[in-house]
Amino acid sequence: MGETIAAVAASGGAIGIVRVSGSLVPHIAAGILGRIPPARRALYAPFMDAEGVVLDEGIALYFPAPHSFTGEWVLELQGHGSPAVLGAILSACFSLGARPARPGEFSQRAFLNDKIDLAQAEAIADLITSRSKDAAQAAMRSLHGVFSDHVHALVESLTLWRAHIEAWIDFSEDMESEDFNEKEIILAPLQRIQQDISNLLVQVQRGVRLRNRLPVAILGPPNAGKSTLMNRLAAREVSIVSAIPGTTRDVIKEEVMLDGVVLQVADTAGLHGAGDDIEKEGQRRALDHGETADLILWVEDDAEPMRVSEHKARILALPEVLIVRNKIDITGRAPGVWDDDGRKTITLSACTGEGMEYLENELLSRSGKVSTEGDFTARSRHVDALIKAEEGLMRVGAIWRNNRELELMAEELLAVQHILGEITGAVSNEELLDRIFSEFCIGK
Ligand SMILES: Nc1nc2c(ncn2[C@@H]2O[C@H](COP(=O)(O)OP(=O)(O)O)[C@@H](O)[C@H]2O)c(=O)[nH]1
Ligand SMILES: [Mg+2]
Questions:
Q1: What digits encode the pLDDT tens for the residues 321-346?
Q2: Is pLDDT of 373 > 80?
């Protein structure tokens, strides 16, 4: 801290931006622009190096501390997008005392200066990498503190409850008296907070999925039409389609956009247990992929119901499997969603596209797109924290039931508060911060 940092924050387009933050900004602005720009106003000016050579001309924006993104003095120089031009402007900043910014360092400073909390800083990264409008909107809501507000509310209820419990510690002998209303003091708050955490957990898990793009694996016997289905979903020829079994060997992945939701679809080698070494390796990868996917589409050839794979039982035992009976253009079966022995089954033709809407609707509802209104992005570290908080509260309940130790309960509650505090960064350590910000891009 204290050092002034500079980085190219945008390049590759018509316009590029060099961003500088720190106490040397007035000095650097004077050096490059020949004057101190007005605060928060666009100034059109030449950008010069130390020798007075004009490197570029563009717009300078000057934000005196603390009214800036980082809370420090900030200068943004918008020049032409050439990496060479931007590199020269950046070098001029370095020669005036700035040093290169590390990934996410601007956001990290904004966090350290209390401009944003940790969940909001993460939302910035999510917004930058968002691939769909829904994901972007959800990231915006996190950035505006929707998620953080939920966490603050939880921490507040916990604090209040703990204070209440602590007030009784010195009077624990009175716990047998009439004054001590067990339901009001212990059971009701416990239940309410547990409910709040589990509600938030559901939202957060949806937020993680929105950010992560749902991994979907297409599996099934050879020649069932897996690659044809992949190409239909991707709306382009991603995989080779052929009547020769064993065509697909590697796992082929493609991002598929469906109504604002991004899926990561993987087409895999047909599973039949035989084949040469390459095919066998392909099948091993297919099975591995199935095990890590959030959803499996098990594709079968409706015209050849007998061609089932020995791996079918193993795949169907996995938690999220949709059966797709393909090639109904041959069998004449109607397209639709069916309940086949308690298994959701979709009949369609990947070739003609008939019935694809049933599959797409199913994919959308499983990707968490029920209503994204009010959703926010979140990360698995937030899910982990909420699960730990749930466990902590379970321990609190157990302590009460087993030995009514108020002091132990208060201690456990404090630990839960700390766990939740890690989400917003109210409680943080250097290692956690480094891990989070190092995933950001430079200049952010
Ligand atoms: N009639 C018909 N043929 C299909 C359909 N889907 C795939 N096929 C054909 O089935 C064969 C195998 O398709 P492919 O997608 O390569 O199967 P994969 O081995 O499961 O990837 C190819 O000749 C495709 O043209 C379909 O819906 N209807
Ligand atoms: Mg294939």
A1: 999 999 999 999 999 999 988 889 99
A2: no
Q: Which domains does the chain have, with CATH numbers?
A: 5-101 (3.30.1360.120), 123-210+379-427 (1.20.120.430), 213-366 (3.40.50.300)
Q: Would the CB of 351 count as within 6 Å of ligand 1?
A: yes
Whether 283 lines ligand 1, by a CB cut-off of 6 Å, is no
User: What is the distance in A from the centroid of ligand 1 to the CA of 306?
Assistant: 16
pLDDT greater at residue 354 or residue 134: 354
DSSP 89-125: HHHHHHHTT-EEPPTTHHHHHHHHTTSS-HHHHHHHH
Q: Using a 6 Å cutoff on CB, does residue 368 contact ligand 1?
A: no
Shortest-distance atom of ligand 1 to CA 224? 20
More confident residue, 210 or 361: 361
CA distance 142 to 154: 16
